[in-house]
Each structure stands twice: as C-alpha cells, then as structure tokens.
Amino acid sequence: MGYDIERFVGYVNEGLLCSICRDVLEDPLQAPCEHAFCTACIHGWLVHHSNCPEDRQVIDVSLLRPLYRYMKNDLNRLQLHCRNREYGCEMICSLESIDRHERECEYSQIPCSNAGCSVQIERRNLDGHLAVCEYRSRECPNGCGYTILSAEDTQHNCVAELRTELELLRSEMICRVEEAKHEMESRLDSQRRHMVQKESILQSEIEELKSQMSRMMSDVRSLMAAERQHRQELEQAELEKREL
C-alpha cells in the first residue's frame, strides 16, 4: 500500500500515484509499459494476474524495474504531514526524510518497556509513565536485594524470598557436587583402565625379557660346553704330541 494522498501538501502529479491502490507510490517499481506501482501492490497483483492492471499488457516480476530517476526525485521532493498529526505533531517533511522523522517523532505511540505492561504511550510521555507504571521494577527497600514489581509490593516477603533463593542455591550446589563427583569418578575409571593396560603391556615386556634371558643363558651354557670340549680336545692333542 502507498502513502495516503490526504497527507500530502499541495498537488501530487498523477504519474506519482500507484495504479493499483491510487495512493502515492511507496517503494515504487515500474513496468515496461511505464505504469508505476507500489512494490507490495504489484507483487500482490501478480500472484493472481499476469498483466498490467492499467493496460492489460503481459508483465512478469522479472520485467519490473526501479522508477526513472527524474520521477524518483519528484517523488522524494513531495511534502507531507507526519503520520502522528492526529496526536499533535505539526511537522511537514519531504517524502525522502519522513521515515527518519517518524522513527524519532515525540508523538509516536510506542509500547511501555516494562515486561507485562501493554500500554501504548507517546514517546514524549514515556518517562512520566515509567515513573508510575505498575509493572516497573525496583530493589526491595528492606535490603534483601530482591527485585520486585510495584504490583507485587503487598505480596513480597523478604524471608520467604531469601529462603526460596537459598533452596535454589542449595539445589544448584548439590547438582554441581554430583556433577564434579561423576566427572572425578569417570576420570579415575579412565586412569584405572589406562594403568591396567600399561601393567599388561609391562607384564608382556617382562615375560619377553625373561624369555630372551633364558635363551641367552642357554646359549651361554652351550658356548661353555663347547669351550670345555675344545679345551679337552686341545689337552688330548697336547698329550699325543708329547708321546710322539
């Protein structure tokens, strides 16, 4: 939908009106036949039609283009009243700057920032409303540190609130202790499995070393026996030599 033509000051050229809603163009697009439309209007039209609403020429979304520069400039220069005119705003801006003004307009209706409050209030009156809003929050004047809403003043009980908070802290602490316990047990189990695995590896290595040592001792005995045999043969040869 376009801008309500009743908001504009002075004459508005017919070429700057949307061919569908007949209001002043908002976010405009132009068809090859040079008819202009609000983006929302022409997109909604083409959901059910495939032609221009003015001259019935066939058009498609892909054929739509931005407004000619000179028409865009003429559009941006139009003067119009702020939409908050009914609330007292007397500002008149160019179409190019109206959105920026309305975002900051003191007469804009904005929601109260307090959770639970459904009041819509003029921006200029927001501070005054927040000071008396029944949903405003503040710290307990009795020193318990709890944040309360004005509507809950009569129901607030420092002792009960602190007891509840203490129970929550106790529950949280128990949960954390249990988590830490489970984590430590998991780590101990992991280390225990690792140590058992290492022990098994070491035991295998010890058995292998024992086997190697046994083979070495057997080789040593064989060598010693061979040496004795060789010595005996030398002694026998020496005796035979003497006899000769």
Automatic annotation (TrEMBL):
UniProt record, GO biological process: regulation of canonical NF-kappaB signal transduction
Sections of the chain in a coiled coil: 206-243
Start and end residues, zinc fingers (TRAF-type): 101-144
Domain of life: Eukaryota
Keyword Zinc-finger attached: yes
Claim: Metal-binding is one of the keywords in the record: yes
Domain TRAF-type span(s) in chain numbering: 101-144
Domain RING-type residues, every copy: 18-56
UniProtKB keywords: Coiled coil, Ligase, Metal-binding, Zinc, Zinc-finger
InterPro entries assigned to the protein according to its UniProt record, in alphabetical order: Znf_RING, Znf_RING/FYVE/PHD, Znf_RING_CS, Znf_TRAF
Single GO molecular function: zinc ion binding
Name listed for the protein in its UniProt record: RNF41 ligase
Originating species: Donacobius atricapilla
